C-alpha cells in the first residue's frame, strides 16, 4: 500500500526563521519608546554578563533597554536630519556602533549618571582579556579542588597528581602575568580558582532629552567614523564586443600574372 501523506513526523525543535518580522517589531518598539519616554541614553559596556544584566534590568523596570541590531535601531530613530523622528535624535544613531546599547527612561539625568558611574560588578575573565594581575600557584596540595577535577587540570596544562584523594601540584606554576592576553586555558584555570579579574560596567556616552535635545558626555575620537547611509552601488557598464571586419587577402602580382598566362594559353588552344 502507498504511504499515507497524513502520517508525517513533525519535529517540534525546528522553528522557522522570522528575521523580517523581528526587525519590524524592533523598529516599531524603538519609535514607540521615543514617544513614551522623556530621555534616551547611549552607553557602552565592558565584559557583558547575562546574569548581571538581568539584575540591572530588574532595578530599572520602569525603563527600557535595547541591545544589538544597531542598524535597525538607527533606522528606527532616523539616520539623518531628514529621517529623524525627533529633533537631534539622529546624533544618537550616528554613534550606534560596536558594543553599545540604549536606555529609554523617565528618570532624571543626575540619577542615571550617578547609578551607572558607581555600578561595577567583578566577573571571571574570558579569553582575550588582558590580565590585571599576576597569578601563581605554589607546589603542594590544592585543597580548593575536588579530586574529580584533577584530570581536567592536567588537560589545562597544570602538572598535577592525586595523593590520597587530594590534588597536588608537582611544581610552582605561573598561571598568568600582568599585561598578558589570556588564552582559553588560562581563563578556565582562573575561573576554577574563583579569580574574578574582569569587571562588568557601563559608560554613559551621550543622551537625548525631549526638551533640551542632544548632549554628549564622551566625545567621539578623531579617527572614529560616524554611521552613514550606504550608497547604492552603480551597475558596471558592460562593453559590447566589437565585430571584427573580415578582410579578404589581396592577390599578389605573381598570382595575377599566372592567371593572365593561363588565359592566354586557353585562347591559343581554341585558335
What layout of secondary structure does this protein have?
Layout (H helix, E strand, L loop, with lengths): L18 H18 L2 E8 L3 H10 L4 E4 L2 H8 L12 H4 L6 E6 L3 H10 L2 E3 L11 E3 L2 E2 L8 H6 L4 E4 L2 E4 L3 E4 L7 H10 L4 E12 L3 E4 L36 H18 L1
Antiparallel strand pairs: 1-3, 1-10, 2-3, 4-10, 5-9, 6-8, 7-8, 10-11
Helix pairs in contact: 1-3
Largest sheet: 6 strands, antiparallel
Could you tell me the strand content as a percent range?
A: 15-25%
- How does the helix and strand content classify structurally? alpha+beta
- Give the fraction of residues assigned to helices: 25-40%
CATH homology superfamily of one domain: Ribosomal protein L10, N-terminal RNA-binding domain
Count helical runs.
8
What is the oligomeric state here? single chain
The number of strands is 11
Distance between the termini: 97 Å
- Rg (C-alpha, Å): 37 Å
What would your notes on this structure say?
- The chain is an alpha+beta fold.
- Among the domains are: 20-122 and 200-216, Ribosomal protein L10, N-terminal RNA-binding domain (Alpha-Beta Plaits), CATH 3.30.70; 135-193, Alpha-Beta Complex (Molybdopterin biosynthesis moea protein, domain 2), CATH 3.90.105.
- It has 8 helices and 11 strands.
- The strands form 3 sheets. Strands 1, 2, 3, 4, 10 and 11 form a 6-stranded antiparallel beta sheet that branches. A 3-stranded antiparallel beta sheet has the order 6-8-7.
- A hairpin with a 3-residue loop joins strand 10 and strand 11.
- Helix 1 crosses helix 3.
- It is extended.
Amino acid at each position: 500500500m502507498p504511504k499515507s501523506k497524513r502520517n508525517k513526523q513533525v519535529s517540534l525543535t525546528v522553528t522557522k526563521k522570522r528575521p523580517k518580522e523581528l526587525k519590524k517589531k524592533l523598529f516599531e518598539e524603538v519609535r514607540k519608546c521615543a514617544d513614551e519616554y522623556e530621555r534616551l541614553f547611549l552607553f557602552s559596556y565592558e565584559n557583558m554578563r547575562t546574569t548581571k544584566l538581568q539584575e540591572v534590568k530588574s532595578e530599572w523596570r520602569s525603563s527600557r533597554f535595547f541591545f544589538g541590531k544597531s542598524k535597525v535601531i538607527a533606522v528606527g530613530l532616523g539616520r539623518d536630519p531628514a529621517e529623524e523622528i525627533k529633533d537631534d535624535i539622529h546624533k544618537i544613531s550616528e554613534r550606534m556602533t560596536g558594543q553599545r546599547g540604549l536606555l529609554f527612561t523617565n528618570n532624571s539625568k543626575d540619577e542615571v549618571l550617578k547609578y551607572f558611574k558607581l555600578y561595577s560588578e567583578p566577573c571571571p575573565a574570558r579569553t582575550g582579556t588582558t590580565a590585571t594581575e599576576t597569578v601563581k600557584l605554589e607546589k603542594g596540595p590544592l585543597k580548593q579542588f575536588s579530586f574529580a577535577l584533577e584530570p581536567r587540570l592536567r588537560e589545562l596544562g597544570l602538572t598535577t597528581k592525586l595523593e590520597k584523594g587530594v590534588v597536588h601540584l608537582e611544581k610552582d606554576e605561573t598561571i598568568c602575568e600582568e599585561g598578558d592576553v589570556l588564552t582559553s586555558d588560562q581563563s578556565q584555570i582562573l575561573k576554577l580558582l574563583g579569580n574574578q579579574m574582569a569587571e562588568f560596567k557601563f559608560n554613559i556616552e551621550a543622551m537625548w532629552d525631549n526638551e533640551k535635545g542632544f548632549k554628549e558626555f564622551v566625545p567621539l575620537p578623531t579617527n572614529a567614523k560616524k554611521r552613514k547611509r550606504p550608497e547604492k552601488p552603480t551597475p558596471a557598464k558592460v562593453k559590447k564586443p566589437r565585430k571584427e571586419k573580415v578582410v579578404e587577402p589581396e592577390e599578389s602580382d605573381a598570382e595575377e600574372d599566372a592567371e593572365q598566362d593561363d588565359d592566354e594559353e586557353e585562347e591559343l588552344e581554341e585558335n
